[in-house]
Amino acid sequence: MILINIESLSDNELRNIAQQEDLEDWETLTREELIEGLEDLYGEDEEGGLDGNSGNSKKKYINTLTDVQSDNVLSLPGVERLPESYSDTSIHMILKDSDWAYVFWSLSPQQISELEESGASLILRNTRLSAEGEPVAEYDIDVTLEDASWTVELPYHGFGYRVSLVAVSGDSETVICTSEKLVTSEGWFCAHPEELEDEKTFRTVFSSVIMKGGAVIPNRQLLALVERLQSMQKQEADER
Amino acid sequence: MKSRLNFIFNAHMPFVRHPEYPKFLEEDWLYEVMNESYIPLLRMMYRLKEDNVPFRLTFSLSPTLCSMLGDDLLNERFGVYLDEHIELGDKEIARLESDPVKRALATDYRDELIANRTFYNEFCQGRILNAFNDLSNQGFLELITTAATHAYLPVYRDYPLAVNAQIETGVLEHSRIFDKMAEGFWLPECGYFPGVEDYLTRHNIRWVSIASHSLILSPDKPEKGSYRPVRCPNGLYCFVRDERLSSLVWSFSEGYPTDPDYRDFYRDIGFDLPMDYIRPYVHEPDVRSFTGYKYCAVTGKTSDKNVYDKEKALQKADAHARNFLYNVTCKTRSLSDVLDDDPVYTVSFDAELFGHWWYEGVKWLDNLVRLIGKDDSVELITPADFINTKPEVQTLRPALSSWGEGGYSAVWVDGATNAGYYRHIFKAIERMTELAERFPAQKSLKQRFLNQAARETLLLMASDWPFIIHYQTSSEYATKRLEGHIQNLNLVYDNMCKNAVNTEWLVKAEKRDNLFRNLDYNIMNRAHLDEPSPIYTAEF
Asked: Which end of chain B is more exposed for a tag (fewer CB within 10 A), N or C?
């Protein structure tokens, strides 16, 4: 038996319990407010029942914790394998290269239950943002509750991107979680490739990335830039 | 026009220390590079000094490497490693009595081991960091630091505390060990992301090195190409790696080390001779490993290798040093009509390439430095030398980049083998932050428990584990390390949530992962970033 002291619960755990108990404004409450709110809530059940000395309230915390922490707590002191998931809902995006990002997410057990009960479908939404952070375009990818990661394309440079998990039920959409903004940059020469047509500029800038055999280092953006230059030169030659 | 050559060597090894075993396979990584790279490089630099050859080189010594090089247990084991391999040399000399060519090679290897042991024991007093520090104090080296566990920082951009903890711990450790502040910081894997400069200047770092495409793909127009350092808008100097010159050495397809006459790295008696013979020098249970006794030349893409001809290979090392210098001077000549200042060429390598991977690399470097010493048109400089001239440089925003395959993060986040671990690594960082904020200013046992959790978090972030998993070299060990550190952090988290301390685990963990002795877990508290940067006090 694990004796739970409410003060020992993590912020995430408190928030999960508060969400499960439909505590008002649970998302924005501070740690102190969450504790106070839960104390009030459970205090109604049984007098003095929040310090682990009261049977009912203690049981309630344990059940809630068991729900949200899977077997992690129960397998103490040693943990033999990595948890398959964590108790909170979150989504992260890591840039792999100039055009692709690795996205992974986790859904809390409560979130999964709600989605299963509602029959809502799940989409991964990739939103392109302007420099001011305003959405300018988005595309959706259908995902399932079994999915936990995806590789998404970031097709335009010089923009911010943000991914969200969205529950879709009929005509209504609910954003479940959103990643931090990831900003990609567009190189000055990518926007002004004509500047590199000047031989001296090209030599100054590119001579450090052309290898002994004459090939440019295998970088996607540099290679694209060289391709554009070649195409511009071919076009000019054709016109002549 | 004068060519200014800025050589930067990144000396780094992941923290591998297993006191729970009498002998541990992956600890050999350290002993091999100590014997084959670090000590030979140091001996070479002292020879240059004795011969009055001027030189200035930059070495980044990673905090994990420094921790291991200063560790009693690992140093004691290195002594045993040297003794055993000298003994193996004696056996090889006897075994090869009828093969004079290989016998001469075995004798060379054995004699080098003996010379290394003498240098290590008598000159360094068992601490090779002393020699690096000595050369720095005498004005030959600029020593710099890097991220605490060589974390690849761009993947942690959403975790400011984790990025800061890596940088701050690196800076503090360097200051503690070398009794001086590092002015430069080696961005692990040349991994730059916009914004990292703010963490660096917070800790008085003045310069970093970035990849060429970081400059070429900047949102600002680069005016001088890669040949003059630039400054970030916050003042941090960036020395741009010259990919072409660096690739003359470091290229799997066309670099000098691929020359057929050089010694082959992979053919080693640890894998080629009968187990009964080699057993005392490899690992239990009959796990073959490198011994350093290698008799084959690269030859080509064939398993039928020529016998290594050392004389011929050393002549090649001399020719390649001349070739490198020729490329430098040609380059300067070809740029003379487009540059109005002397070009600065930054070439950077992993230090372990020299001697360990490329056996003749130390001799190549020795030859090159001596050639430069006689050539008035080329000068060796360090970044601090350049900065101290108060140069006028362009202010520019570098772009995200690394020196990894493709130039970004795809090696460390490959989507197939290693990316799945970031779910756990990020969670561990979040949990560590949560612990630091829920339990600030703890004393005694809980403080030790939380400090150890902070160590586990930093170790977890090492770039080595996803790198090794990606390239499938020792992926089983890297996977175990990653999972072990995640589990350790979760264990502390779960215990602290119960207001408990697992003392049995703590004592073991402190003995095993005994690095960063001054690490304070409060570094992971968000309030820490609002405080001024720590004042550095040294204990050297």
From this structure: C
What pLDDT shows up at residue B535?
57
Decide the pairing of beta strands A135-143 and A182-183.
Answer: unpaired
A169: domain CATH number is 2.60.40.10
Decide if A237 touches B, using CB distance below 8 A: no
Closest by CA position to B11, among listed B26, B29, B28, B33: B33
Tell whether A120 and A139 lie within a shared domain.
yes
DSSP states of B242-263 as a string? -HHHHHHHS-TTTSGGG-TTSB
Return the H-helix or E-strand segment holding B84.
helix B72-95
Q: Which residues are CB-contacts of B226 (< 8 A; sequence separation ≥ 6)? A: A205, A208, A209, B212, B215, B216, B240, B241, B242, B346
Task: Please tell me whether residues A96 and A178 are part of one structural domain.
Answer: yes
Contacts of A113 (CB under 8 A, 6+ apart): none
In this complex, do B217 and A183 lie within 8 Å of one another by their Cβ atoms? no
pLDDT tens digit string along B507-531? 999 999 999 999 999 999 999 999 8
A212 in any annotated domain: yes
Task: Give residue A127's domain range.
Answer: 90-183
Q: Are strands B141-146 and B185-186 parallel, antiparallel or unpaired?
A: parallel
A199 and A176 in one domain? no
Q: Would you state the pLDDT for residue A2?
A: 29
Residues 318-377 of B with CB under 8 A from A: 331, 334-335, 337-339
Evaluate whether B241 touches B346 at the Cβ level (below 8 Å). Answer: yes
Instruction: Answer yes or no: do B213 and A2 touch at CB < 8 A.
Output: no
Distance from CA of A235 to the nearest CA of B (A): 24
Considering its fold, how many domains does chain A have in total? 3
% residues pLDDT > 70 (chain B)? 99
Does A192 sit within 8 Å of B221, measured CB to CB? yes
Are A157 and A210 part of one and the same domain? no
**Cα gap A221→B224, rounded to integer Å:** 20
Cα A90 to the center of its chain, rounded Å: 6
In a domain, A149, yes or no: yes
A106 touches B: beta carbon within 8 Å:
yes
A29 within some domain: yes
Q: Which domains does chain B have, with CATH numbers?
A: 3-406 (3.20.110.10), 416-530 (1.20.1430.10)
The ipTM, to two decimals, is: 0.92
Domain stops at, among A159, A183, A207: A183
| Same domain for A101 and A65 | no
The verdict on residue A77 lying in a domain is: no
Most A-contacting residue of B209, B348, B413 (CB-CB within 10 A), to test interface? B413
Residue A37 is predicted with a pLDDT of: 83
Question: To the nearest whole angstrom, how far is the Cα of B530 from the nearest Cα of chain A?
Answer: 20
Is the Cβ–Cβ distance between B297 and B313 less than 8 Å? Answer: yes
Would an 8 Å CB–CB cutoff place A197 in contact with chain B?
no
Residue A84 has pLDDT above 90, yes or no: no
Nearest to A97 among B155, B409, B502 (CB): B409
CB contact under 8 A, B213 and A217: yes
pLDDT of residue A50: 34
